[in-house]
Amino acid sequence: TWDLPAAGTWFVVLSDRGHDARDPSLFQVHTNFEQADAFEPNPDLGTAIRVASGAGVESTILPAGDRDFFYVDVAGEGTLEVALTQVASGFHPSFLVRDPSGRSIGVWQNPTVSNGVAEPYEVATKVPGRYYIEIADQDASVRVSEPYRMTVRLR
User: Fold this and answer.
1) Which long-range contacts (CB under 8 A, 24 or more apart) does 92-96 make?
2) Mind listing the pLDDT tens digit for each residue in 64-82?
3) What would the mean pLDDT of 34-57 be, rounded to a whole number?
4) Among 47, 80, 136, 148, which has the highest number of CB atoms less than 10 A from its own CB?
5) How far apart are alpha carbons 91 and 59 in whole angstroms?
């Protein structure tokens, strides 16, 4: 499996390890392309994707080590809830909420996942502004082509 960093034309070269042998027999090569989600690239605060309160977005962790950034605009003091559903087997979500200045609120959250549903997380919003949610896999080496769903709610 190769994760390609950008759209374009890519070539696969097949050769023997030492580049010193040949085999005249025929063989087949099969390829499969897994499309990253429609929000890519969104790997930092500057490319974060807007999510409305009560709305959900579906996203993937592609390529391996991918980080997804989203934001929600908050009018004032209250509570922000982050919920993850449709969590694929093998994906161990981890997320962090950042305040309007970009500082983390609390620590990375590694919710327990049961039947594809992660424990929801709530954080207090103290000031109005843009709050960011960063989502990744806990060990940053997993690629997840099945979309997870994130929903945010403001109260």
Assistant:
1) 92/137, 92/138, 92/139, 92/142, 93/118, 93/135, 93/136, 93/137, 93/138, 93/148, 94/135, 94/136, 94/137, 94/138, 95/121, 95/133, 95/134, 95/135, 95/136, 96/133, 96/134
2) 889 999 999 999 999 999 9
3) 89
4) 148
5) 12
Q: Would you call 95 helix, strand, or coil by DSSP?
A: strand
Average pLDDT over residues 145-151: 94
Evaluate if pTM is beyond 0.70.
yes
Question: How does 19-33 read in b/e, with b if 16+ C-beta sit within 10 Å?
Answer: eeeeeeeeeeeeeee
Q: Tokens representing 90?
A: 């093998």
Q: Is residue 35's pLDDT more than 90?
A: no
CA distances from 11 to 4, 30, 41, 62, 128 (A): 11, 13, 22, 20, 49
In this predicted structure, the answer to whether residue 32 has a pLDDT above a threshold of 80 is no
* Sign (positive or negative) of CA dihedral 87, 96, 48, 32: negative
3-state secondary structure of 45: helix
Q: Which two tokens stand for residue 12?
A: 């696969």
- 1 class by beta-carbon count within 10 Å (0-12 exposed, 13-18 middle, 19+ buried): exposed
The answer, yes or no, to whether residue 153 has pLDDT greater than 80, is yes
- CB 78 within 8 Å of CB 99: no
